[in-house]
Structure formats: structure tokens, C-alpha cells
Design a protein that fits this description.
Elements: H1 3-26, H2 33-59, H3 65-93, H4 104-128
Helix pairs in contact: 1-2, 1-3, 2-3, 3-4
Subcellular location: Membrane
Membrane topology: Multi-pass membrane protein
Transmembrane segments: 6-27, 70-89, 101-121
């Protein structure tokens, strides 16, 4: 069991609900349709990976190196991907776009993809056997 994965899954799930409601109700009047869609993309990816972390938390073990890599890459990926999107959208809505966040979003996506790839690698031996 990985308490780290469970804890971050719960934190990401909780904050995705709060940010989703914030976007749907408070930001709807302030953001363009494109900005709102980007914000919602960040929330969706955060929630998808919150659920993944919760599931992995009951399957993976913090004492196994590859399991730690899987969990850590997903946690880092969510932070970089979703939170950079939130920063980009909110800063551009205030006419102070934080352009340095632009390259961080795809880096976060790369970390998320790496987490999934490590998960495939971890269980690919089952196909061979």
C-alpha cells in the first residue's frame, strides 16, 4: 500500500472539485470560452489522475523502486500540467499572462505519460509469462 499515492489522490480529487466549481461558477463570467475550456482540461486531467493515484495506492508499495517512480511521476505531472494551465488561464484573464508557464504544461504531460509508461512496463512481464 502506498499512503503517498492515496494522500495525493485525495488532495488532487478534493482540489479538482473545488477548482471545477470555481471555474464553472465564478470564472464563467470572467473567462472566454477558450480559457474556460483550458481550465476545465486542467481540472479533468487532475481528477483522472487523482482517481488513478487512489487505485494505485492500494496496489503499489512504497518500498519498491518502480512503484515510487510511478507514483512520483504522476504527482509531479499533475502539478506541472494542471497547475500550469490554471496559472496560464488566470494570469491571461487578468491581462498579465505568465508566459514562462507555457513550456511547463507539456513537461507535465510528459511526466504523466511517463507514469503511465512505467505502469505498462511494471505489468508487461505478465504478458510474456
Amino acid at each position: 500500500m502506498s499512503f503517498t499515492a492515496i494522500l495525493f489522490g485525495a488532495i488532487f480529487g478534493f482540489t479538482a472539485i473545488i477548482l471545477g466549481a470555481f471555474g464553472a461558477h465564478l470564472l464563467k463570467k470572467k473567462l472566454t470560452a477558450e480559457q474556460l475550456q483550458s481550465f476545465e482540461t486542467g481540472v479533468k486531467y487532475q481528477m483522472y489522475h487523482a482517481i488513478l493515484l487512489l487505485a494505485l495506492g492500494f496496489q503499489l508499495n512504497n518500498e519498491i523502486t518502480i512503484d515510487c517512480y510511478i507514483i512520483n511521476t504522476i504527482i509531479i505531472g499533475v502539478f506541472l500540467f494542471s497547475f500550469s494551465i490554471y496559472g496560464l488561464v488566470l494570469s491571461s484573464a487578468n491581462n498579465k499572462k505568465l508566459k514562462f508557464l507555457g513550456p511547463i504544461t507539456p513537461l507535465g504531460g510528459l511526466f504523466l505519460a511517463l507514469g503511465w509508461a512505467l505502469l505498462i512496463y511494471k505489468y508487461s512481464y505478465l504478458i510474456i509469462i
